[in-house]
Amino acid sequence: MVPALVIAFALVAIVTVGGGTWFLNSLRHGLPDQNAIRKIGDMDQATTIFDASDQMAFTIYKEQRIEVPLSEMSPNLVHAILDIEDQRFYQHRGFDLVRIGSAAMANVRRRRAAQGGSTITQQLARQSFLRPDKTLHRKFQELILATRVEHLYTKDHILETYLNKVYFGDGLYGVEAASRGYFGKHASELDVEEAALLAGLVKSPSSYAPTVNLERATTRRNVVLQAMLDAGHINRATLDAIRAKPVALHDTLREPESHGQYFKEQVRRELIDRFGWQLVYQGGLRVYTTLDMPMQMAAESAVAEQLKSLDDRRRAVAIRRAAAKTQTPNKKGPTPVATSGTMPERNPLQAALVAMEPRTGHVRAMVGGRDFHVSNFNRAVQAKRQPGSAFKPFVYAAALESGFSPASIIDHLDDPVVIGRASWTPDDHSTGSSMTMRTALRTSSNRAAVRMLQQIGIGRAVQEARDIGIGDLPNVPSLALGSGEVTLQSMTAAYGAFANHGIVPKPVLIRRVEDRDGTLLYQSHEPASRAISDTTAFLMSTMLADVVNAGTGARARALGFKLPAAGKTGTTNDFNDAGFIGYTPRMVTGVWVGFDQPRTILPRGFAADVAVPLWATFMKAATKDAKPEWLTPPPGVVAVSVCRVSGQLAGEGCSDVEVVNNDGEIDRRSMVYTEYFARGTEPTITCEVHSGHGLTGGIVGRVADGESPAAPARHENMVVGSLPPPAATSGVVKPETKPETTTATEPNKRGFWGRIFRRPGDPQTQDPDKPKDDPTKPKKKPGQQP
Question: Is residue 140 classed exposed, middle or buried when 0-12, 13-18 and 19+ CB atoms within 10 A define those classes?
Fold first, then answer.
């Protein structure tokens, strides 16, 4: 009998010890090691994006959390949390036997797990390392971890970590995010009633969140207030006063980011490319950008305003066309008036804008489309479209680099371009057989641009485009008319080189990035590259200033933009794309208007009418406090009085020339103007065209009249550095004599005398901004579809 009892006792002991050992081993399985526990304070934090003024603009996050030290948390919040969650927090060593016993008795009475009895340390351990399932096994693991956490950290550190990590509902993690998200204030500013409400959310944040169920949140708050009263942290009068007041919510953390979404998305993409998704969404980075928020808002307003105007015009065109169809005889009966012109379009007209500083490349504003929430495709950065005549400045810049000057005569414009066995004459708006380079750019002559491209070589222009940052473009004659495809941002940066002494700015959206501790991770040091000489950049700016003052960009002046500026329009085939890129010494802005699936914007929808108003509206707002300034001529640039007809030094006969006006009458006017030259390229021969007077002078004057804007005379061979900029670059619009050169394309090609004495009323040709088809390449729809 006795041996049997001994054996039974031994078996029980063995099973008990073995089972206990197995249970203890199972508890250890899955528990973090010491190193992991030391990282208990590591938690997901939102990345904060600041604007150019270091004001918070956006956040990127997986969990909306802003970590703060315990010293920056309201004492009211600390009391409320401890009174409701762990009254003996500063006395126990990780778990509270009194609280556990009380919870166990409550569970027995209710016959369910109504209370958990976990301390704040246990809750922190569970949130950091364990699954939320309610089992005895997990509870023992929680006790072990809590003991280890208490051994490693001080009470204040544990409480601080807990308050930064705990979830408060509605996507808000930590007390700082919860304070801003529910009450619009910092955690340090919470009063008793706000602290009590937040403390009450910890038990069941998804259910008690005031934005989900305010009544339940208020009831739970009152429970916390009672606990604070029992602990002696508030009095009865305070409790009664708070209970009588309604809860007031105010979210300043998640106010709708209604501006700059395309900019934010581009920054997000760049951050992920550089740091990876996890660090960007969970690492709490501090990102300092170049965004100028008032300028961004002005850009979005200008885009919306111009798109609305164009939508209204397109609607009016649709209604007129529908009305015209109803008046056309139809055997099947009258055609109903189309209503599509008054209905929202499935693929609406889009627009894009990029504004940057030419010296630094800092992007101050970016709009990538009509509505980011409808389409986040960024047409300013991702879309490639034809620039049209906006590409011509790069042809002329290459020509200046090759030794040409703004006064160089581009002739033989009537001769077709021979390409193999084929010939091609680009459509143009004028029939003059020659003109200066300055006139060619101001009037946007297609024939002159193609002729100049032939003279310098297509390969030179392709290389120029590559050097200036536009990219690789097709090696075809129609390149001069913008047949290649480019992004708006690259074109805008390329124009920035004209305002930046020939140095191409690299577009910069991010100035620097710091980690959550303030350690510098990235500093923008984008290398700028010289594409053209300082002299060429200045000469191009003087010519492009003529475009704004008296050329295809003059609409900007009519709309009230008065600062000195330069720029160029661009319109593509079938009026599918319209763009304008213009700049002052401190700001270069590019705009584009068109459809994602290329189609006509408006009948005869030239960039001067479609894109320039958008640019002018934005630039007026962006530069409203700016003072007039212009580029300083670099050393080696000289100003010379020349004849606008011959491009040679002005002679006595050039100041009084007979011309034939549009009415066929004889007028007399000066052909003398001041031109800038790179030293060594200025003319040395006096004008041979106006060496005499009479019919010949009048005829020649008639051909060239209007080819260059009026400018005050200057003395010959003076260094420009000692002179103010010529009138053409002053930015001040003066009354302009209406150009009298022919702007017609005759049905049958005329001879020399026919071009001289054009008949009033001759038909007008297409706009010079439109790139024409090149016979060496098949016709294709421009642009890259998103």
Answer: middle
pTM beyond 0.85: the answer is no
| Least confident range of 51-65, 112-126, 285-299, 757-771 | 757-771
Residue in this structure with the two tokens 């740091």, named with its chain if needed = 275
* Angle between the N-to-C axes of helices 120-129 and 136-152, in degrees from 0 to 180, rounded to the nearest 10: 110
pLDDT tens readout for residues 307-319: 999 999 999 999 9
638: tokens are: 């000289």
Locus of tokens 């609607």? 315
DSSP per residue, 397-423:
HHHHHTT--TT-EE--TTSPEEETTEE
**Average pLDDT, integer, range 45-58:** 93
Task: Judge whether 290 and 362 are in contact, CB under 8 Å.
Answer: yes
Q: Which tens digits make up the pLDDT trace of 152-179?
A: 899 999 999 999 999 999 999 999 999 9
CA 382 to mean position of chain CA atoms: 11
Cβ neighbour number for residue 751 with a 10 Å cutoff: 7
Instruction: In whole angstroms, give the CA distance from residue 455 to residue 478.
Output: 14
**Given strand 520-523, what is the order of strands in its sheet?**
56-60, 47-50, 286-289, 510-514, 520-523
Please pick, among 179, 389, 434, 541, the residue that the annotation labels catalytic.
389
| Distance from the Cα of residue 303 to its chain's centroid | 12
Catalytic annotation present for 85: yes
Selected catalytic residue, list 85, 194, 401, 675: 85
Question: Percentages helix, strand, coil for the chain, rounded to the nearest 5?
Answer: 40, 15, 45
Please, which residues have CB within 8 angstroms of residue 539's CB and are 6 or more apart in sequence? 400, 405, 406, 637, 676, 677, 678
